[in-house]
Design a protein that fits this description.
There is one protein chain. Helix 5 packs across helix 10. A six-stranded parallel beta sheet has the order 2-1-3-4-5-6, covered by helices on one side. It is an alpha/beta fold and about 325 residues long. Helix 8 links the parallel strand 10 and strand 11. It contains twelve helices and twelve strands. The protein is globular and about 65 Å long. The longest helix is centred in the last third of the chain and has 17 residues.
């Protein structure tokens, strides 16, 4: 089996599956093996099509080369599995739609993280396999605090996403609460030329002070695993800040720690959250975001449901076995 992804990535999704599959199959990773290896792989599993090109912007010529290489592997007897992490890459380059259509349309099977995304390529064989939990990376020890801590975690790619959460938290006016925003854009001082930007910097610092007075903490820096563990253990509610994603690993982080999770009612995120009664919101409806934050402290039973779900359905060993079962069934069809 070739999984065309980096093994030692910050995103542990692939590593978890590879570590477990290693017990049963001969497995190779990394995109370069897709391009250069002359080994006949039984299964080639692509996670993110854009990773085949090291995440760079692609040209039309790249698509022709990819089409040729896919054809080579197929003619060589390899079966192609592709996981549908995103409807399109986050970067939004001109040829990304063509790239995705090329790869997913030649797949022998598509792995989905929820039912919603099975509609994107309905003519293909679609299977649903859960996202692995993070239990092996963190020590889950909930810490009781006298504050209701809301933790926004995960990549924020647009300032608007962060501003929506911040404004909603202020409007919600939840008693004895604090909002911590990781990977903050707002909290990253954009004014570095002291003399040139001194007035802008004063205004920025003034605005930041106002947020601090409203119990909002911005963390723009990269967090260590130990810091992540500390923040998750002390949080009462986890917020997945992305408003246009198909999936969110943050939800499964929150589930691993047994927390109520708030997120957008979009893509697979909606069904994963709502099945355990976690509050969701419509990104274009500000009041629904406010209400979701308030409701998070009411839906206390969701925390235990999330933890149980994580342990029961998101165990990496079980998820790897489901991948192996899929590979085996595809090969039997040959």
């Amino acid at each position: 089996v070739l999984i065309t992804s980096q093994y030692n990535s910050q995103n542990t999704y692939v590593k978890d599956i590879v570590d477990e599959l290693n017990n049963d199959v001969e497995i190779v990773t990394e995109a370069q093996n897709f391009w250069t290896s002359n080994i006949r792989f039984d299964i080639i599993h692509i996670q993110w099509p854009e990773e085949l090109f090291s995440w760079r912007r692609i040209e039309e010529s790249d698509l022709h080369v990819l089409e040729s290489r896919l054809s080579y592997h197929k003619q060589n007897g390899s079966k192609l599995v592709v996981t549908l992490h995103n409807a399109l890459p986050h970067r939004r380059h001109a040829l990304d739609q063509k790239l995705y259509e090329l790869v997913y349309n030649v797949a022998d099977a598509i792995v989905n993280l929820g039912e919603f995304s099975t509609r994107l390529y309905p003519h293909k064989r679609n299977v649903i396999i859960q996202h692995p939990n993070y239990a092996k990376y963190y020590n889950v020890k909930p810490k009781e605090t006298n504050r209701n801590i809301f933790l926004s975690f995960g990549a924020i790619r647009k300032k608007e996403e962060e501003q929506l959460i911040v404004d909603a938290f202020i409007k919600a006016a939840i008693k004895n609460s604090q909002l911590i925003v990781c990977n903050s854009i707002i909290g990253k001082n954009p004014y570095t030329h002291l003399k040139k930007d001194i007035l802008k910097m004063y205004a920025y610092n003034f605005r930041l002070k106002k947020y601090t007075q409203k119990n909002i903490v911005f963390i723009p820096k990269y967090l260590s695993d130990q810091e992540v563990e500390t923040y998750f253990n002390q949080a009462k509610v986890i917020i997945s800040p992305r408003i246009d994603n198909l999936n969110s690993g943050v939800i499964y982080m929150g589930y691993t720690f047994g927390k109520v999770v708030v997120g957008a009612a979009k893509g697979n995120m909606k069904e994963v959250l709502e099945q355990n009664n976690n509050p969701t919101y419509q990104p274009n409806d500000f009041n629904s975001v406010v209400e979701a934050l308030r409701q998070a402290l009411v839906n206390k039973e969701s925390a235990k449901l999330n933890e149980d779900y994580s342990l029961t359905f998101c165990n990496p060993k079980q998820i790897a076995q489901q991948h192996l079962d899929l590979y085996t069934s595809i090969l039997k069809l040959n």
